[in-house]
TrEMBL record:
Residues 55-332 form the ZP domain. One of its GO terms (cellular component) is endomembrane system. It comes from the Eukaryota. Its main location: membrane. The lineage of its organism: Eukaryota, Metazoa, Chordata, Craniata, Vertebrata. It is a single-pass type I membrane protein. This is ZP domain-containing protein. It comes from Solea senegalensis. Keywords: Disulfide bond, Extracellular matrix, Membrane, Secreted, Signal, Transmembrane, Transmembrane helix. It is found in: Endomembrane system; Secreted, Extracellular space, Extracellular matrix. The chain crosses the membrane at residues 383-406.
Length: 425
């Protein structure tokens, strides 16, 4: 409002105008660099932490990066991507040149927050719960970074850029608004007549029919709930099958998390995990029972992320790549044959799988109470039966003893039976 009349007055005299607005830096009107709203007087510098703005919204997380320092550093907007996912167009931002300075905007939907490798970590803090009472509340912290790619050369004169961000939400809110994120990976297969690309998908289901995908309730899954997993391939002819090398879980969405629990690796398998199909068709299938990570102790919910390292193998050669359980070695396959019989590995991720457990062991106590009367009843019944048997034995003994006494007294009675009773005289 204040700059309008002054700008028109300056234009009439052909002089440039620098205008200061309350709470902003001095901005030159009409400053341009390579078609972007950038002023070399302010933006010809290395990027800094203040260049990123984070908005933790109700449905999305919005990130705005001052593009001008990125531009002056020798990069373009397409060089910026979420969590190093530079090959995925969905993980890149878009230019907004209608502001000063020009910004690159990234939008992360809470419904698919894991799609570009963002991390979800659960912690506990004191705060108001859903009923407004102060208590221990589960907090889901979503974090990640935006960076530029590393050059293919040994050295580089360009600075490596990285912007970090994080947002925290009540975990119950995230569970209510977040859909289960499952990843897909494109895998390249080389053949004698060329190469083709197949897409692998890791999907979770409710039951063994594999008809309905897993839906996690707002309160989370109860411990030991059975989850059915499928790895499916598309754009694949019948000569190739899906081979799951190994699958494991982590408390975060990072497949390289130091804390991990293996579901199956070679012949080693978790007792609660069942493998239905592997290396025999274009789908791998198994099931496991959900659990909690001990690091989430004193928390009502735990997050579990599933990761599967998968490859494609020729249907005739898949059995040769399967380990022989009881032996540490695979079947005898030459190195050259193995490279042509299978593709490279792809890491597929699904999660977060939210599991819940009561704050107090109510269920265990109830089970204990249910079992206690049964044990007491059995004890009483046994005592009664023993008492009846003892009484029965004692009765038989008393009866035999009584008969013995009666037989011993019978001659005396017969001798005196001839004596007359004086009362009858």
């Amino acid at each position: 409002m204040l700059c309008g009349p002054l700008r028109r007055l300056a234009q009439a005299y052909g002089e440039p105008l620098t205008c200061w607005l309350p709470g902003t830096r001095a901005l030159s009107a009409g400053a341009q660099f390579n078609g972007f709203n950038c002023d070399g007087n302010f933006h010809n510098r290395l990027p800094a932490e203040r260049d990123i703005s984070v908005y933790c919204g109700v449905q999305t997380i919005t990130l705005k990066i001052n593009f001008c320092p990125v531009l002056f550093s020798g990069y373009s907007d397409t060089d910026l991507a979420l969590n190093g996912r530079h090959g995925d167009a969905h993980c890149r931002g878009f230019i907004n040149n209608n502001t000063f300075p020009t910004v690159v905007i990234f939008s992360i939907s809470l419904a698919s927050l894991e799609s570009c490798g963002n991390s979800l970590v659960v912690s506990t803090a004191h705060g108001p719960n859903a009923y407004g009472n102060m208590s221990l509340v589960q907090i889901g912290n979503i974090s990640g970074y935006i960076d530029t790619p590393d050059p293919p050369t040994i050295i580089s004169y360009l600075p490596g850029l990285q912007y970090k961000f994080s947002c925290s939400y009540p975990l119950e809110y995230l569970v209510n608004n977040t859909q289960l994120a499952t990843s897909a990976a494109a895998i390249t297969v080389k053949e004698s007549n060329g190469t083709f690309i197949s897409t692998l998908n890791l999907l979770l289901y409710n039951d063994s029919s594999y008809g309905q995908q897993l839906a996690i309730p707002m309160a989370g899954l109860t411990l030991k709930t059975r989850v059915y997993v499928a790895v499916k391939a598309s754009n694949l002819d019948k000569r190739w099958n899906v081979l799951m090398e190994y699958c494991y879980t982590t408390p975060s969405g990072n497949p390289n998390d130091d804390m991990r629990y293996d579901l199956f690796v070679s012949c080693n398998k978790d007792p609660q995990t069942t493998i239905f199909e592997n290396g025999k068709s274009q789908m791998g299938r198994f099931a496991f029972e959900v659990f909690r990570f001990v690091k989430h102790k004193n928390q009502k919910m735990s997050t579990v992320f599933l990761h599967c390292v998968t490859k494609l193998c020729r249907s005739d050669d898949c059995p040769l790549l399967m380990p022989i359980c009881g032996s540490r070695k695979k079947r005898d396959v030459s190195e050259g044959k193995e490279s042509s019989a299978a593709s490279g590995n792809a890491v597929l991720t699904a999660g977060p799988i939210i599991t819940r457990f009561d704050e107090t062991p109510t269920n265990n106590s109830q089970l204990g109470l249910l079992k206690a009367p049964e044990f007491q009843i059995n004890t009483v019944t046994g005592a009664l039966i023993s008492g009846v048997i003892i009484l029965g034995v004692m009765s038989v003994c008393f009866f035999i003893f009584s008969l013995t006494l009666l037989k011993g007294k019978s001659p005396v009675i017969s001798t005196s039976s001839g004596a007359r009773n004086p009362a009858f005289s």
